[in-house]
Amino acid sequence: MIYKRSSELFADAQKVIPGGVNSPVRAFKAVGGEPIFVEKAEGAYLYDEDGNKLIDYINSWGPLILGHAHKPVIDAVIEKARKGTSFGTPTEIETKIAELAVKMVPNIDKIRMVNSGTEACMSAVRLARGFTGKEKIIKFAGCYHGHSDSFLIQAGSGAVTFGTPNSPGVTQGTAKDTLLAKFNDLENVKDLVEANKDEIACIILEPVAGNMGCIPPAEGFLEGLRKICDETGILLVFDEVMTGFRLAPGGVQERTGVNADIVCFGKVIGGGLPVGAFAARNEIMDYLAPVGPVYQAGTLSGNPLAMAAGLAMLTELDSKREIFESIEKKTEYLHKGMDKVLTQNNVDFTINRFGSMISVHFGKEPVTDFDSAAKSANLGVFNKFFHGMLENGIYIAPSAFETWFLSDALSYEDLDRTIEVVDKVTKEF
Ligand code: PMP
């Protein structure tokens, strides 16, 4: 494939944008080479600035569960834009999307809209701290909750000790309030809770992790966390930015029957526009300003265009619930197909899948937490795989630590083509 124009655009971008990108993982730094610049997208396909057509397994990192430029979403945005783009006053559509979200998601009474997943998680933690009067939080190594300071804490310093920042700019003062636990390790969480008695506001996690590849919760893990929280008054926060409105209409809470105290959303809820949200039962949500004392705000929160896209997306998902089964079947088909060809080609691999999230790790051992994901992240092999896929028209995430997000716009021909390319690329390993 030719990437001449993308390369020129990247050179221009780097002069005026740090690294040429507005979000780091887009830069292909982990896999080498240069990013492709996309001109347009439709359904399951991206079309780049050089005219290459790619089957897309990123879908804007998750939001586009029905594929690109989905007509009801686009029509809703265009119609709304004609009436003005932002008013800074309440609008009816904010209530409409809130009503629908509250109907679709179990165990929430009220929802507040923000502009990104980062804001949602950051605000959820502030609310948990305000509600409980406690300051510490537990997060899991390998889970990503956006780039706010409390979450940029690296793994490795041991579970019971204080976290340390992994980004310059995060102060030690902030880092000491974030305790790190191992995903899928209940004993580890119990130890942390015991060692920090009456100091912990919340446990936040991706209930199906998607930021170290896809890692489903082990049997009993979420139930165990719920029990710990019930016994201690700690709030359980599900970061469903990736999984909300994707793994089921009501997300992981619906799939597993485990209730969280606060749920964070992003991605699908905005239909591809910048939206995040957090939600809980009345008792907790009424702690927020202007009713309660915990402050949280946003000039563009509940923006009409973003709400129009989100409402159109949720309306589609709510009224055509068969979509969830359809997309899951497609993911299972891809899983089986890749499993077959990778086995035939004698590749060491582990495929993890939950609903329409799937990832391929190039190692034999089960991938259940950050350590095992890191061990299986055979970066040399992954990078070869990534570039082989791209060269053959398949766009997957440019990092070994990301999940693939399927869209229901993918046809079985697209999936067959993908499996064929996986076969071709890994034959050459
Ligand atoms: N939480 C999770 C689980 C995410 O995957 C992400 C982003 N990938 C975020 C939070 C942050 O969302 P945003 O990038 O919209 O700020």
Please specify the SSE layout and strand pairing:
Elements: H1 4-16, E1 38-42, E2 45-48, E3 53-56, H2 71-81, H3 92-104, E4 110-114, H4 117-132, E5 136-140, H5 172-175, E6 178-181, H6 186-195, E7 200-205, H7 221-232, E8 235-239, H8 251-256, E9 262-265, E10 276-280, H9 282-285, H10 304-319, H11 322-344, E11 350-354, E12 357-361, H12 370-376, H13 379-391, E13 394-395, E14 404-405, H14 412-427
Parallel strand pairs: 3-13, 5-6, 5-7, 7-8, 8-9
Antiparallel strand pairs: 1-2, 2-3, 4-10, 9-10, 11-12, 12-14
Catalytic activity: (S)-4-amino-5-oxopentanoate = 5-aminolevulinate
EC number: 5.4.3.8
GO molecular function: glutamate-1-semialdehyde 2,1-aminomutase activity; pyridoxal phosphate binding; transaminase activity
Q: How many structural domains? A: 2
User: What is the rounded distance between the termini?
Assistant: 20 Å
Overall geometry: globular
What is the architecture of the largest domain at the second tier of CATH?
3-Layer(aba) Sandwich
Mean of residue pLDDT values: 94
Strand order of the largest sheet: 4-10-9-8-7-5-6
**E-strand count:** 14
- The proportion of strand residues reads 5-15%
The structure class reads alpha/beta
Question: How many helix segments?
Answer: 14
CATH superfamily of the largest domain: Type I PLP-dependent aspartate aminotransferase-like (Major domain)
Main sheet: strands, sense, barrel: 7 strands, mixed
Order of helices and strands: HEEEHHEHEHEHEHEHEEHHHEEHHEEH
Small-molecule binders here are: 4'-deoxy-4'-aminopyridoxal-5'-phosphate
Radius of gyration in whole Å, from Cα?
21 Å
CATH class of the largest domain: Alpha Beta
Helix content: 25-40%
